[in-house]
């Protein structure tokens, strides 16, 4: 009996020893396998991540190069256009203001221009403008645009020099005889705009008097300073 008990105790002790040794080893082995798997997995993921980063870097580099090429091409196009514009500009002749002729400022050249003379704009509206357009039409409606401008200038210069405030005052005080019944044509209206609204002038000289030699003779007019003849009318300034 005692021997049997001793054998049983020996078997139990041996089982305990094996359990004490085997369990930690098994735990260690499983732990090692888990770590290895994690390392392998981690290595694979890191490799994939590194691959993605490398691919993105290459894409960004390619895009950057494309943008640089586009910028360089635009710069070359700009330089070429600038060079072409400079070459074209060098072929254009630019005249200084002093080179402009008298005909660019006045409608007619005259033998005795007054270089101190300048046109002057005068605002004419309402009834007085209607009288002005009709008076120009009556005096020079058949003389064309320049003839109308000369008559309009005579009216304007008389107002400026003699201090008349209205066209009607000039008409009634300075011997104008033309009818006001004729409807102004485009030449008369344009002449009024040029002389009165824009301050233009047909000639570079004061014009005060005028008459038509084909219709009458006038020693008085001929005694004044002759300025210009246009078609059937002669224009004068007072001495």
Say what oligomer this is: single chain
In percent terms, what proportion of residues is strand? 5-15%
| Largest sheet: spatial strand order | 1-3-2
Order of helices and strands: HHHHHEHEE
Tally of helical runs: 6
**Radius of gyration in whole Å, from Cα?**
54 Å
Q: What share of the residues lie within helices? A: 55-70%
Alpha-beta classification: mainly alpha
For the residues shown, what is the average pLDDT? 76
Explained architecture:
This protein is mainly alpha-helical and 239 residues long. It has 2 domains: 1-94; 106-237, no CATH class. Helices cover 62% and strands 6% of the residues. The protein has 6 helices and 3 strands; from the N terminus they run H-H-H-H-H-E-H-E-E. Strands 1-3-2 form a 3-stranded antiparallel β-sheet, with helices on one face. Helix 2 (126-140) crosses helix 3 (144-162), helix 2 crosses helix 5 and helix 3 (144-162) runs parallel beside helix 5. It starts with a helix and ends with a strand. Residues 1-6, 8-12, 20-46 and 85-104 have low confidence and may be disordered.
Short key terms for the protein model shown above:
disordered N terminus, 3-stranded antiparallel sheet, single chain, mainly alpha, 2 domains, 6 helices, 239 residues
